[in-house]
Amino acid sequence: MSQTTLLYIEDLTVDFDGFKAIDKLSLYVDYGELRFLIGPNGAGKTTLLDVICGKIKPESGRVIFRENIDILRKKEHELVLLGIGRKFQTPSVFTELSVFDNMDISLRRKKNVWTTIFSKVDKKEKEKIMNILHFCGLEKKRDLKAAFLSHGEKQLLEIAMILIQEPELILLDEPVAGLTKEERFQMGQLLKNILDTRSCSILIVEHDMNFVRQFAKRITVMHEGKILCEGNIDRVQNDEKVREVYLGRSEG
């Protein structure tokens, strides 16, 4: 295993009642990398994220994080503590709480239950929260209930809630779904800024090919639970199998 590899996946298989959602897949993500996962619906992309974050267990294979952490032996909450943050397609924020309180709750997820329930945010924690909100462009929304945020702002808040936990690997499932053109660009710039200023890698499942073309440096194309092609956007777009299987289809 290379010392530059943050996430190491080898011969991974996930079987749902005889259907191989992932079929002997191997994938390697380096430190500081922004990797896009694309492919038609049913290709196994979201299932792969589910395995990495501990939501489901595979039939076989290896998934190693940070050189020596066996993900398959860990529970979901343990992987959060170890530095894996997951954002689902639909924002999962606490809509009746303020933006600041959402951040406070996320910050305390790395602490024990009693600390989460009874402790109050101190000056250092408040400063940390405000720095992340500023980084994500949400500092002016700190006192607003999350219910009143736009869809795009909720997406940004959820990413901010992940960042406050200082992850080493961020998993994003269609982060620009439902966003305007301006919001998509803002999201792309945020992801670039995260990589430029923080020690982490980002693995993204995405269907919006315009967004992929604009921001991707390395792309993994999945089909029927396997990797069809890997490389930069030019290599992927010019690959004959990819054109047949994916790019010629509807992007929805």
UniProtKB/TrEMBL annotation:
Matching InterPro entries: ABC_AA/LPS_Transport, ABC_transporter-like_ATP-bd, ABC_transporter-like_CS, ABC_transptr_urea_ATP-bd_UrtD, P-loop_NTPase
Domain ABC transporter residues, every copy: 7-249
Alphabetized GO MF terms: ATP binding; ATP hydrolysis activity
Keyword tags: ATP-binding, Nucleotide-binding, Transport
Database matches in Pfam families: ABC_tran
GO cellular component terms, semicolon-separated: plasma membrane
Entries under Gene3D superfamilies matching the protein: P-loop containing nucleotide triphosphate hydrolases
Coiled-coil segments on the chain, per record: none
NCBIfam families the UniProt entry points to: urea_trans_UrtD (TIGR03411)
UniProt-recorded name of the protein: ABC transporter ATP-binding protein
Organism in which the protein naturally occurs: Thermodesulfovibrio yellowstonii
Organism placement in taxonomy: Bacteria, Pseudomonadati, Nitrospirota, Thermodesulfovibrionia, Thermodesulfovibrionales
